[in-house]
Amino acid sequence: VRLAVLGNGGFGTAMAIAARRIGHDVTVWGHDPGYTAEIQASRRNPRYLPAGIEVPPGIEFTADPHRALAGAAIVLVAVPTQNLRAAVGGLVVALPAGVPLVSLAKGLEQQSGLRPSQVLQELCPGHPVLALSGPSHAEEVARGLPALVVLAGAGPEERRALQQALSDQHLRVYRNDDLLGVELCGALKNVMAVAAGIAEGLGLGDNAKAAILSRGLVEMMRFGQAEGAKPETVWGLAGVGDLAVTAFSQHGRNRAFGVAIGEGRTLEQVLAATPKVAEGVWTSRVVRRRAEELGIEMPLCEAVCRVLFEGLPPGRAVRELMERDRKREME
Amino acid sequence: VRLAVLGNGGFGTAMAIAARRIGHDVTVWGHDPGYTAEIQASRRNPRYLPAGIEVPPGIEFTADPHRALAGAAIVLVAVPTQNLRAAVGGLVVALPAGVPLVSLAKGLEQQSGLRPSQVLQELCPGHPVLALSGPSHAEEVARGLPALVVLAGAGPEERRALQQALSDQHLRVYRNDDLLGVELCGALKNVMAVAAGIAEGLGLGDNAKAAILSRGLVEMMRFGQAEGAKPETVWGLAGVGDLAVTAFSQHGRNRAFGVAIGEGRTLEQVLAATPKVAEGVWTSRVVRRRAEELGIEMPLCEAVCRVLFEGLPPGRAVRELMERDRKREME
């Protein structure tokens, strides 16, 4: 079928390559006409993917929304959460009626606190909206290495149809009926990955990182339960699977962002150094605010916010976390 | 206090160094008189720890059980599960009456299927038996990098006293009242780490490894619930925390064992190449047998067994796992 990807970042491009491998006709929309023309001509995406990854024939890059979306039967929305409203707002006129939208973003909108699928639903009433998540680093997906992901949202029929359309022997899509949980996991794991990166930047080692992962998962569970997500989702590919790869893999950009902070750079310095968006940075503030409203404790998330936005030295943040009372693990 | 460590492997030595840092008088028993004398003289443990790690003064290495155990108020048992019965059986006569035993092993005994604490309880009636577990790679513990671990077993008073005795600002001990769950997690995570290593050895990437971690955690949960463990334990430091570090960290010996298998070496070749024991290898068979008795599915554990002991090619094992029906994630 015809499949459009909105966004020419690393994961958008990787999913375009995966969809082409499955046999779809793929167009990728990007907001920057100069850069989309460069990718289209060079068959490389050097800003967001390693040089060795080639974009195969049968994928067209364009900055023209009508050209990108005409005749599309599936639209993958690969725009970072904080840019979603502005980017998709300008594309709505070009969307074919009723085409399903699959969000790939992993964050929460700063102003509204909304999940990406909620933003899309607001902007595009009448379209089924889904979210695809799970451990799926762009570079590996582009190379055709195996990845297991989950697809949530819309109704069971649409999920099943999209599962079929997006799966092959490399990328395996599992259905999940907990859209809320899948999106919250995606957003929260990025915050925890920043925390893990900060610990790494401080030179604290893998035991400390594993402790952060395990504590972070408890915070994710607590937040998810308070919002009504299913515990099984937090355990699954979208939760612990994605958290582990984001926190430990060398590919993880939220982790890498945290490493730079842990090594002593400021938020402004790290933001200026890369075009890649670390969604966890902005999402940490939304989660902290919402956790306060819900009356739940999120010490790791709070520490990330204070380090990023309030000048708390990373080393002191870690000491404070370590110095919480010795108690029974689950109290 | 006087603290004895039974076993001079990597983790036993690391815990001796941690206990010495806390201020205890430490003796370490090893079964090999030549090698204990070598450590005692050189203040290095080259078989099991990197060359840069020095054993500080105030820790004595000996092969004499009476010398090691005389006056000990705490005994840490750092012997691999499959050697536990033979090693501790010979030391029982030297144990001070009623001294608490803290097991550090992470496996299940092949013949009996018993957990390490059950083996110790059988051998040493009248002694409180506990287990310490969680993400705690020896090298990092020895270096004084932060680690959060859990302590389970015995009664609440003994747990609290031992928590105090073993914690400082580097090594933080949390109490957990689910000894069964803590020990099952330690045993099972090693099996899953072998699986993750096999995938790595095959060159499958971090997304695949994260998928294995997430699926492995579901198997751990299923097994734990069938045996009566608490779900919170599987989520916690002893479960997901330890699994993540074992599967992703470069220190993980079960992971490294799996990598060698994934690269095409045989079980016999890998066993011959290192003195370090990968507990997951032997434990996989116990878990598979028990899972059959319990009537629960453990496809990852089964695949590990078939690859290690029945000649199933690792690549085919992974393909079989990937080709299971596409279905809802949690079905």
- Per DSSP E runs of 2 or more residues, the count of β-strands of chain A stands at 8
Lateral arrangement of strands in the main beta sheet of chain A: 3-2-1-4-5-6-7-8
The greatest interface between two protein chains, and residues involved on each side, is: A-B, 58 and 58 residues
Stretches with pLDDT under 50, minimum 5 residues of chain A: none
Secondary-structure class of chain A:
alpha/beta
Task: Please tell me about this protein's structure.
- Two copies of one chain form a homodimer.
- Chain A is built from 16 helices and eight strands.
- Chain A starts with a strand and ends in a 9-residue tail after the last helix.
- In chain A, strand 2, helix 2 and strand 3 form a beta-alpha-beta unit.
- In chain A, helix 14 packs across helix 15.
- The first copy, chain A, is α/β, with parallel strands linked by helices and 331 residues long.
- The longest helix of chain A is centred in the middle third of the chain and has 23 residues.
- Chain A has an eight-stranded mixed β-sheet with strand order 3-2-1-4-5-6-7-8, with helices on both faces.
- Helices cover 53% and strands 11% of the residues of chain A.
- The model of chain A has no long low-confidence stretch (mean pLDDT 94).
- Chains A and B meet through helix 6, strand 7, strand 8, helix 9 and helix 11 of A and helix 6, strand 7, strand 8, helix 9 and helix 11 of B.
